[in-house]
Design a protein that fits this description.
Helices cover 8% and strands 35% of the residues. The protein has eleven helices and 147 strands.
Length: 1790
Amino acid sequence: MAGPLAGLLPLVLQLSSLALAPGTGRGRAVPREHPQLADIHDYQQQAPAHSAPAGAPQEQWRPLEEQLGKLEAEVTELREQNKELQERVRQLESCECRPASSQCWGLGRAWPEGARWEPDACTACICQDGAAHCDPKPGLPNCRGCHQDGQAYGNGETFSPDACTTCRCLDLSTLGNLLAPGFQGSRAAGDDGSGEGAITCTQKLCPRGPCLEPGACCPHCEPGCPGGHRAGETWQLEPCVICTCQAGTVQCQGPSCSELNCLESYTPPGECCPVCRPGCEYEGQLYEEGANFLSSSNPCLQCSCLKSLVRCVPMKCLPSPCPEPVLRPGHCCPTCRGCTEGGSHWEHGQEWTAPGDPCQICQCLEGHIQCRQRECASLCPYPARPLPGTCCPMCDGCFLNGREYRSGEPIGSGDPCSHCHCANGSVQCEPLPCPPVSCRHPGRIPGQCCPVCDGCEYQRHQYQSGETFRLQESGRCVRCSCWAGEVSCEEQECPVAPCSLPDSGPQLCPGVCICGSGEQLRRDAASTVAGDGGVFLHSKGVIAKSTNHARVCSEAAVGMAKPGSWEGQRWWRCPGCHGDSSLVVACVLDGEEFAEGVQWEPDGQPCTACSCQDGVPMCRAVLCSPAPCQHPTQHPGACCPSCDSCTYHGQVYANGQNFTDADSPCHACLCEDGTVRCSLVNCPPTTCARPQSGPGQCCPKCPDCVLEEQVFVDGESFPHPRDPCQECQCREGHARCQPRACPRASCAHPLPGPCCQSDCNGCAFGGKEYPNGADFPHPSDPCRLCRCLSGNVQCLARRCPPLSCPEPVLPPGECCPQCPAPSSGCPRPGGAVPARHQEHFSPPGDPCRRCLCLDGSVSCQRLPCPPAPCAHPRQGPCCPSCDGCLYQGKEFASGERFPSLTAVCHVCLCWEGSVSCEPRACAPAQCPFPARSDCCPTCDGCEYLGESYLSSQEFPDPREPCSLCTCLGGFVTCSHRPCEPLGCSHPLTPPGHCCPTCQGCLYHGVTAAPGETLPDPLDPTCTLCTCQEGSVRCQKKPCPPALCPNPSPGPCSCPVCHSCLSQGQEHRDGEEFEGPPGSCERCRCQAGQVSCVRLQCPPLSCPLQVTEQGNCCPRCRGCLAHGEEHPEGSSWEPPDSPCSSCTCHEGVVTCARVQCVSSCAQPHQGPGDCCPRCSDCEHKGRKYEPGESFQPGADPCEVCICQLQPEGPPSLRCHRQQCPSLVGCPASQLLPPGPQHCCPTCAQALSNCTEGLLGSELAPPDPCYTCQCQDLTWLCIHRACPDLSCPWWERHTPPGSCCPVCRECVVEAEGRRVADGESWRDPSNACIACTCHRGHVECHLEECQALSCPYGWVKVLEAGRCCERCQAPAQSCTYQGREVASGERWAVDACTSCSCVAGTVRCQSQRCPPLSCGPDKAPALSPGSCCPRCLPRPASCMAFGDPHYRTFDGRLLHFQGSCSYVLARDCRGGDFSVHVTNDDRGRSGVAWTQEVTVLLEDVAVRLLQGGAVTVDGRPVALPLLREPLLYVELRGRTVILHAQPGLQVLWDGQSQVEVSVPGSYRGRICGLCGDFNGFAQDDLRGPEGLLLSTEAAFGNSWQVPEGPGPGRPCSKGREVDPCRAAGYRARREANARCGVLKSSPFSRCHAVVPPEPFFAACVYDLCACGPGSLADACLCDALEAYASHCRRAGVMPAWRGPTLCVVGCPLDRGFVFDECGPPCPRTCFNQHIPLGELAAHCVRPCVPGCRCPAGLVEHEAHCISPKACPPVLLTRDQPPSALPSPSWELQGAT
């Protein structure tokens, strides 16, 4: 037995190890346990204790050996399969599992590999390959079944001694039955078969990877989260949800999507984050993707929409050529101002020659025209006059003494001693030859050419023979005498001079002395005083002036001295001095003396230059040459501007200085050499969808963000100022914050840091924090001790001492087992079955407590709760649960969002027991300056430059003290603070003041003090200006009188006699020019006088001559036809007859139809051809080029022309030549055509069409022509002949006739002949009537109108008649409920009249001719007329609400007076006056319009509440006609008044009135509607013409005496702000309700009518109306006012809703409401008029009201089918006078 048994035991042990060993997490495969192997395993455990009996037969083992052999084969096969499985598992888990040392878990602790322990007295365990193998101890027969920890377990029962171990009890009998059925002999002696079973224990499988509590059962698994996720691991739970395992808690969040800067977003399929829909919004406008556009607020920005972002770049402007360019509204680049005069326009810098004056050159400079005379170079002394149309004279001839000479022509010089001629503009003279003389100094005798010896010429002076004279030669005084042409001289002494400074210059008389400056001659009794008081004649012969240098003459000359004088100097001539030489003189000016020829600048006059010329001080203004720069500077005290700096827009800049243009902040400028060059600022591209541009700011930029009172730039990323764990970014003015992304920690249990849990210098474990190296008990297992090592936690089981008792127990709360006390049961609460010793149970109704029965006593304690894996768990039934959140004392469900209880503007989310809070996301504000609120910015107020303001609040501009700003719905508008109107024209604004005063003047950039006189900056030379009380008065300097009759303007436009002024043009002396227009004269200027002679016209050879207006002489004229002149001999095609041809011959126009000739076999004729054509321009083998013509046959009247075609080759067109009509040619003078000629001629001149013959007719020789005198031209037209029905051989042409005729007509259809003049009807159709006219049959078809007979009437067709008629007895008609007699007529409106015919109402409607008005006119309707006429385009004014007035010029006013006021009046012609009467709305200081009064001549029309109308105090029914003054009608609920001057008034019957006047009243209107001059700034003008400071003062100034009625006193208007009195809540509600004006129903109108003024008026009204139904009416009034302006601008908003301003219509009568239906709806009387024609002539405004739906017409206040209408007879041109007056017939009309 030893051998088999020895071989069996290893096999059984090997099988047991394969069958029962579980996987340990190291990649081992766990094979399924075989049932038989389990029995063998149990037996093997008991084998050592049950040896076989001695001497047992070997045969008993043989079946077992065989069975074991089979089992060994199966085991081998299982081993192979196990190897394959192990290899596969090893491949799958090689990358995920970490190798761990093989340990086993038992008795609450870990056992190393190979360790042995005894869990109880009957069992021994061993740790092999990580699995605990427990077997019954051998030799213990009392261990029956299985016992473990004092508990008995049956065979096959499975139990868990602790949380990490699973055990199973197997009875040994099972192994015995497996080994050998009925085998009993193997047991030991005395064994009764009830031996102790074996216990097999296995460790709980540890997950591959992380576990929730590492160290509890699986000491080597990683810390992680439920689901097997490691700490720090991130995975995707859903397509757009990312989860992370942190500290054992799973945190999931949605996708982190970037903030979108777009209007609308969507999430594409398969994506997590939304994207922008293509398109952009910028400045309130929507643009498509890829669109390019200009910014509406800054035209210098070129913007584009790309990827839903607006990017703007500045436009570049070329340098302006002018110094002060003008920036036009809506343009980016400044342009130079042009000039306009006389219908002509010139750009800046453009030069042109003045019309009519070729010598005047004009130039446009900055909108001003400056003209100058053309400078002609003087190339010769006597140039010829300029050619006609030119300015400068020419040197190809000479002009001398008023006469022109050709070059080389002799010129009479008046000197008989010389011969002169013209030589290229110069006069060349040659002296006549003289014979020689015998003397040395011959003299000249007057009248003789050659010198003779009868006198002397000495030193250029003539002396007679025998004359003696004195001279000074070489400093000596000599006495000379002349005798027979010889001069002899002798020296002579000089007399003593009586003065201190002798003057012995040449050519002075001896003894002449000069007194020094300041010296005076001696005065004594012998002196005499001259008449002027300043000259003394001394007895010794001295002449002196007391204040100037003195001159003396000899004694002989004293009595002959003659003083002469002019302004500034005195002089004396000494006749006794030879040569008649004057004394040397000087000039005196302002008490200062200047020498002759000296130039100087007077003191204090830098722009004046003076010189002394011939003793006269000549002063003139210095003419400055043009500065070589564009922006020179005029320095104080300097005369001319210089380029050393730049003067630009009133500011002086140094050269090289850079600056920003104050008027255009987008321009950066540089002053360089006196010229300013500006260029656009390069703006950086913006990255936001709504960039903003503030006042004075050039480049748009994205708004900055304000967070926690800190400012951050757009696009900046920064940490949250109070929460460093949030990362923020500034986008679109809003800070977007989100939790900061945390990196994965390098340890398993890091400490939480300020933001992230990544600190490995300690451990966070079980909800507590421990420093590095600390030991601490395990939070859920007191039997383990843990240690923190660099963020990782290592936990080990505590060691227990050995026990002596066989069945130790583990008391609750203890780590080590203890020996139990004697057991006893415990009673359960509620009378249940008692609990056994050491049994655990829970009390009924309290599952959260756990009780233990120990020795009859029960101890209970609350179940320990594991730490919740979330931050804010809620309390579950027993333990905290992560299926909700408990946050700050409140419970929230998982996934619930709620506002933060501690942080304002934060929103919190509860997710799986954890609460995360983040700032609330705010939608971008829809205004540029939103106000701060509790969380998000709102448009209820404004935050402007760091200050907060309420909506509708006014405040001073922080940047400009002279401006006033208004906050309105988040928008800030700033304007200059209004100033009081001044009574001066040139006020001055002192420094530091906002408003100008009259204490000084500012005139064209020059500042002047009161009373100061200064040169006019525009004309400093000729005009002086004076500042008087803030107004500048300028006047020209006086001019001296001219001494000639036709002076020309000189300097300062003063008349001078150097030239002539004729017909407003200046002509030089000697110039010849054309006389006045139409005078036919040639004039000449000579010595300031103009003389004219009449011109002679050259003879003309043509018979027709015409003298045009403005010409002197006639010219040859052609023919006038069809409003055009055609030259003689020309041919043309008349516009009204394309197949006719006209010719002009000797003033006679002959027109006839083209007679075609065919020159080829197969001609072809196109759609627009009059005659057939032949292709290829070929005739008889010859090819003709385009334009060539030839004669195809022997007839000279036939001609062919080769013509080009629009498409294809050229072709031939042949026709018969047309002969001109010989009007007035007698038959005796007719000449037949000659050879090769076509047309006859007349031997005498033809008759002329003169003014006396206009309109008369004349028969030419050819009877086929009829000639008529039109436009001084005979127009002869060929007569067209009708088609004849007879054969050609029966036709004949009567003498003197053109067309052939027949004696009778042949009716081909009937085969009969009809006599001339006979009429008949077609037998087959009685509606066709024919007549025979000399062989020509004329037929016409009679048309019958549509016939509709009333009920009971019959249609009757009489014999021989074409049309039927209705037959019925005569009876009356019913119209609008009243009976009308048969034959009675009445008018429905201005276009329709009706009558009663045999019981039927028949109506006629007038049709209006087409009307086309120019661009500056519009159709208008006069009272009583059907058809409109063209009037200047109108403008409108409206009063609405509480009340608000929108003037003709577009200004919105608020005025609350409750009296009667002038709304609009014709203040010049007094054509009309419109008054409004306001009534108190029920609140203090707020009113509304109650009634309207229109005054026309002596008629007063009052429009009352509810649409009632009175005329002169009497109620009237509508419509009302007072021809030709007014017409009042009711359209829907609107009363419309049409007045004769073109006035139109619309009244809605409640509070809204609109006045429309034509453009011809521009500048003539006054009242609350303004002055209608195109400028809204001056609309606050009172009746006295003065501008008023406030709207209340302006409104009160237009009050009229009549009040609202007796007993109701009126109150004046005052400045009211109802929103301020109503409070913030009322204003906020008004803002919200009025927001519909800025919403989508009105969006299409925002671009054409800005909604902001109406929004402000709406808020104003709602604050004034208060709560309740009155507020609804106020809201509808404001919305209707804005909708009315939209309709006038061409936009029809559909803004009413089921609960918003509903208008009810009588549905039972078929009406529906239409916001803007047709002004003239379809009725029974205009249904036949085409829609386009009806709309073109209906000039009434479009008003909302009840209309008939499509397909129905309006009749008697019902919508009916057109078929049910009474018959209407249409007439086209029925005059309005034919219609009866509609005054009484329309009493009951609607």
